[in-house]
Amino acid sequence: MKPGLLPLLAVSLLPLGATAQSPKPASPPPAAQAIAAAERAFAAQALQEGNKAAFLATMADSAVVFSRAEPALARSVWSGRPAATPTDPSLRWGPATVGAAASGELGYSTGPWYLQQPDGQRVTYGQFFTIWARQPDGRYRWLLDNGISHPAPAGSPEPPATLSYPAAGQPPRRGSTDVLRTATALDEQLSAATAAQGLAPAYTARLHPQARLLREGIMPLTTPAAIRQQLDGEAPRQLLPAGGRIARSGELAYTYGTYQNSGAGQPGRGSYVHLWQHGAKGWQLLAEVCNPAPQ
């Protein structure tokens, strides 16, 4: 019998009325589901109690935000902000893409946000990016919060009902040069490659197939063509990493810091956040958020 006839014969032997079943999609990792739930609960708390109360209640003690494009302790920043009033617009958001390390103690979420006036008018839109860490009590608290604003989207600004879960990574082999002492080594390598090769080639060699770039003022960049076009127009920059962390399982890491444009006649500085994932092709950049410093 020809091998090609086997699948047809298998279908023909099904009981009358039965159909071939396609395999069920794999369930998302429990840690990623828990992070999605934590993000949604965080957003709901903000609507009920106000942003200040919700951010302070859900952050880790070491959580970081950015103030004028400089890393700062989130508790100090949020403690100094005024409490909400009834006339303030409400901040609404929810996850669209969520992932976690195999070890489960480190993960991330990203998705849309918008501001809504008390009369229901939506006035500002953007994307958030949050790093989460599981605490000793099993709950997740956020370690880093950042994002961008962008024009009103063509479709609904609401988060999607069905979440996206990027493919899982693979930890480096023991003894491999990909085993890192510090997460910031990845940024140092990228900065050195940018100086030697140029921005676009250095990034292109390291981009994950599911990479997304967030840039202030434009919609999220999620395709290789859109990302390359954006990188071709950006000035070379030197990365100055300030911190980061590698998951215990070894295949997921995040870093953050500031950058300084290094191109001749192209001054500028700002902040960045990187999400790195290790796989068959080594460490790859899964997400980047860049925000220019205010003038």
UniProtKB/TrEMBL annotation:
It comes from the Bacteria. Gene3D superfamilies: 3.10.450.50. Residues 151-176 are annotated as: Disordered. Transmembrane segments: none annotated. Residues 1-20 form the signal peptide. Keywords: Signal. The keyword Signal applies. Residues 35-141 form the DUF4440 domain. The keyword Signal applies. It holds the Pfam family DUF4440. This is DUF4440 domain-containing protein. It comes from Hymenobacter jeollabukensis.
